[in-house]
Amino acid sequence: MKNYILTPGPTPIPDFVREALSRPIIHHRTPQFQQILKEAMEGLKYIFQTKETVYIISSSGTGAMEAAVANVASPGDKVIVVEGGKFGERWREIAASYGMEVISIQVPWGQAVAPEEIESALKANPEAKAIFITHCETSTGIDTDVESIAKITSASDTLLVVDAISSMGVSPLLMDEWGVDVVVSGSQKGLMLPPGLAFIALSKRAWKWVEASKSGRYYLDLRKYRKAGEKPDTPYTSAVSLIVALREVVNYYKSNGIENMWNRYRRMAEATRAGVKAMGLELFATAPSNGVTAVKVPDGIDGVKFVKTMRDEYGVTMAGGQAQLKGKIFRMAHMGWIEEFDIIVGLSCIEVVLKKMGYKVKDGAIAAAEAVLFA
Amino acid sequence: MKNYILTPGPTPIPDFVREALSRPIIHHRTPQFQQILKEAMEGLKYIFQTKETVYIISSSGTGAMEAAVANVASPGDKVIVVEGGKFGERWREIAASYGMEVISIQVPWGQAVAPEEIESALKANPEAKAIFITHCETSTGIDTDVESIAKITSASDTLLVVDAISSMGVSPLLMDEWGVDVVVSGSQKGLMLPPGLAFIALSKRAWKWVEASKSGRYYLDLRKYRKAGEKPDTPYTSAVSLIVALREVVNYYKSNGIENMWNRYRRMAEATRAGVKAMGLELFATAPSNGVTAVKVPDGIDGVKFVKTMRDEYGVTMAGGQAQLKGKIFRMAHMGWIEEFDIIVGLSCIEVVLKKMGYKVKDGAIAAAEAVLFA
Questions:
Q1: CB-facing half-sphere around the CA of B324: CA atoms within 13 A
Q2: Closest among B199, B198, B201 to B159, alpha carbons compared
Q3: A250 and A261 belong to one structural domain
Q4: What is the CATH number of the domain that holds B278?
Q5: Chain A: residue nearest B90 by CA?
Q6: Number of folded domains that form chain B
Q7: Which of A221, A256, A291 is the last residue of a domain?
Q8: pLDDT 10s digits, A283-311
Q9: Closest by Cβ to A30, choosing from B9, B59, B317
Q10: Given an 8 Å threshold on Cβ–Cβ distance, is A219 in contact with B12?
């Protein structure tokens, strides 16, 4: 059975990445590898839309989230987090584990934070060191209006830290132009690599806070990454194979043009939304992201069984709901090495399995998607 | 030009690892991946020689070192470190970065710590939470007598934490039988994988200290790994491709038998030592490890140029000396996907380049090595 991965990370990896991963190993402290690392880091600047250096950490995306928290604030400092899903909660958990005082903006799951709420929180807590938000909240499929929020934080002394783990390369995020202070991401989402690398870039004003941080840290101490990055090098042994493959991905982005990549993912997201709505299904997120579409499981259908059936009987892997959303939503991702016909496959599988499970699927989903995809 | 990697990490990776790395990605929360993770974790127990669970962290080896420090002690606690090289120093740096009080046993680089020194340090500091040692000190090629040290620590209330990053699977280390409390390792040394995975196992008494630790930590919080490990799962997205390849490596170890692997690495180390001594060169380490042989650069030879020439003109990559040993030693590794004829290639390159640089190499190195390798 052929397998189709339509999950919000890991995402499918291209053949050119698989080929790069299978190359013989090279030593990480050689001119040969240094050149590869340099190209990869330069390419990341393009994808992050920043002039600042983007550092590579060998860890899952959570490692870069923790690096952001631990390096811009200290135990006892006040920080603000926006919690509207599993990954917003993670910001709170990390900050709390470092003994920071956490002000939490609670947002109902499936809704986006209103920039006005950020403004109020900043007014009430002007001494907050940083505010932590999630660009694409993968657990709910929400897209956050980073640009509007950055306008507010830029005018304050509070840093804006953005989890762009599942939005980087998928949705527009103009770090420098918008004035975002810290952006973190990971390898296994839009960047179409296996999991294992995390990325972080900091604005000049964010670096000042890094110097002042008193958090205990070593592996995730960004001062070490900055020093090593000058060569460029990584402070600890680089995950060589993944970085060799990363260079291929950044070159792919450069040759396609990032605006074209964003547009393509947007078109695939729109096609997915058009398709599921044509079936008679409802979207879960009020401001849906370009990386993943969360759909409400219709009444009378067992959501856990639905996702399991697609995977085990049809080879199409999507994600179910997490935590309080278990069984209530399913999530079809359209990022990574995904093309137009993958969207058709995903929608086809949804309608086939829903019909099989007794749901009365409305006609026209594939035609609706085709109209968007191949316009 | 063919390339030969004889560096102490990354080490060459076998074709079966390269093939595993190049497979299509699978999702990390599927029965298919869970089975792979289970086999990999079971196999690690065999390689670590322990009944305890061996946890997999997506990080370089340093991440697992930090996990050990942060989880067994708290800021303000007293800990003991043995510093006889770059990686012993790293233990001190990590503990200091967490605000621990560090008692340092200084050992001249190239010498092994005497178990009696450990005994005295423990007597003088019975309240020390843990003592941190390095099994194979990669920077000097020293092999530490872990078994004798474990006898001493087992009879005390101080935990023994061993950095086995470049000894695991190469030199005997019987975690349970010897009574070692914490063992950390990494993927890119004896385990013949690319860098990117770290491993850690803890004794039952070590877990008690983990519960009590007050260090700020999240990504490296071992309580999260223990909870996820029950399934088994990892608390954050697994580095899927590396773990798929890890399963192949643990199966390779199981089918060969770990004693045979240890013996083979020992024989290759002995052959290397016999070869370099036959050339008239001197070993740097007084207690040489089975993973890497450190050799003094003879008088009148530029050590940096020597290593560079082997690499750039002959395709044979070895390591030079680090920090205070820069230019003074070179290090030929014999671990990972290394076989008998790789030792011959390494020794041949050493004698060819030394001759070219004007050193009067004594005859008989290859014959001396062959006598050990093919006895």
A1: 8
A2: B201
A3: no
A4: 3.90.1150.10
A5: A218
A6: 2
A7: A256
A8: 999 999 999 999 999 999 999 999 999 99
A9: B317
A10: no
| A residues 198..227 contacting B (CB < 8 A) | 215-221
Domain boundary among A197, A228, A256: A256
Distance between first and last Cα of chain A: 31
Chain A residue numbers with beta carbons less than 8 Å from the beta carbon of B13 are 24-25
Instruction: Return the residue of B nearest to A236 by Cα.
Output: B60
Inform me whether the C-beta atom of residue B115 falls under 8 Å from chain A C-beta atoms.
no
Range of the domain at B327: 4-9+257-373
Both A195 and A209 in one domain: the answer is yes
Please report, for the domain that includes residue A209, its CATH number: 3.40.640.10
* Residue B79 contacts A, CB cutoff 8 Å: no
Tell me the shortest Cα–Cα distance from B97 to chain A, in angstroms: 6
Spatial strand order of the sheet with B54-58 comes to: B54-58, B197-202, B182-186, B159-163, B130-134, B78-83, B101-106
B98/A218 Cβ within 8 A: yes
Max CA distance (Å), chain A: 61
State yes or no: pLDDT of B375 exceeds 90.
no
* B218 and B251 belong to one structural domain: yes
Using 70 as the pLDDT threshold, list the residues of chain A that sit under it: none
Claim to verify: residue B82 and residue B158 sit in the same structural domain: yes
Query: What's the mean pLDDT in B64-90?
Result: 98
Q: Measured between alpha carbons, how far is A374 from B39 in angstroms, rounded to an integer?
A: 45
**Would the CB atoms of A236 and B18 count as touching at under 8 Å?**
no
Of B66, B186, B219, the CB nearest to A62: B219
Q: Are residues B316 and B353 in the same domain?
A: yes
Chain B contact for A315, CB < 8 A?
no
Q: Please give the mean pLDDT across all residues of chain A.
A: 97
Q: What is the pLDDT of residue B339?
A: 95
CB A215 within 8 A of CB A94: no
Interface touch B63/A62, C-beta < 8 Å = no
Is the same domain home to B143 and B184? yes
B80, B105 contact by CB (below 8 A): yes
